[in-house]
Amino acid sequence: MKIEGKEYRTIWFENNVVKIIDQTKLPHQFIIKDLKTVKDAINAIKTMEVRGAPLIGATAAYGLVLAIIENNDQSFLKKSSQDLINSRPTAINLKWAVDRMMKKLSRVNSDQIFTIALNEAKEICEEDIKFCENIGLNGLKIIEEIYNKKKDTVNVLTHCNAGWLATINWGTATSPIYHAHKKGIPVHVWVDETRPRNQGANLTSYELNEEEVPNTIIADNTGGILMQRGEVDMCIVGTDRTLSTGDVANKIGTYLKALAAKDNNVPFYVALPSSTIDWDIKDFKDIPIEERNSEELSHVEGLDENNDIKKILIYPKKSKSMNLAFDITPAKYVTGLITEKGICEASTDGLKKLFK
Ligand code: MRU
To answer: Global pTM?
Structure first.
């Protein structure tokens, strides 16, 4: 998708270096950063220079390529794969991508391993782009249906950033929106700010602006009254891990939006590639929920009067705070899952019909 009119992907490989867009600096600075070692990749995931379930999976895959360049040795590769998996706990795509790479790289000659690893990492990215595009085409049908009934702008509410910046291209939740916009269907997006890291305001609104999709940032608590007023036609969110039961882990606050949507008969869709499905865990209480540094709550970053990025404390110095990064939306609140293979009910039966 575009930034200042130029097409980008979120990650690519060039001259033995992995290139990323540093998302901690957006929207105020656009910086392309080099990852040269597997440690750089782990650090980029931990500090959220790259974030979003599919993108951290792709970064981990490229991280293994960097590990091979550094030290072409099986035990180093194994240790690196564990460190990558441990870099963030909730998004299953991370483990999925590392497992896929390691399976491909087991029993491979050391003189071939780099080429095979690089091809597989690239393949993971290409596949994600295709899947996200298909999610867009499938989700487009829902937006079209609403438009054909309403004959007026379709208002979509989204939470966090499940946009192209969270994937390689297109995004998951935003892909149907981009497809609708490209088709000339009038869409407007209510963008949840998404405290504490403001992925909605800093990333979703930014990328929608760059693609000229009308959008309005709202405080996280605003969605409820907008739904009561009939100003939300549908919600689409992404997910970091969806269980085979249809229960959905996503950015903290998603659950409350789903409750409000249910109370107001607003359809609540979750968009995901199959790499985000956890086929093993059956009870959502077993999903590891990341708890991040409470400084993400107590401090905010923004531009000062000299256009420099500044971090300031906004809480009382003595106050404690707690920063859970994800919550679970039980399947009963999810209208449907929009996947690369089609739209299904958020249930074991629904998923089984699409993914044999
Ligand atoms: O903590 P983040 O910014 O990595 O969280 C991202 C989300 O919760 C996204 O909604 C999710 O990964 C889906 S991305 C297509």
So the answer is: 0.97
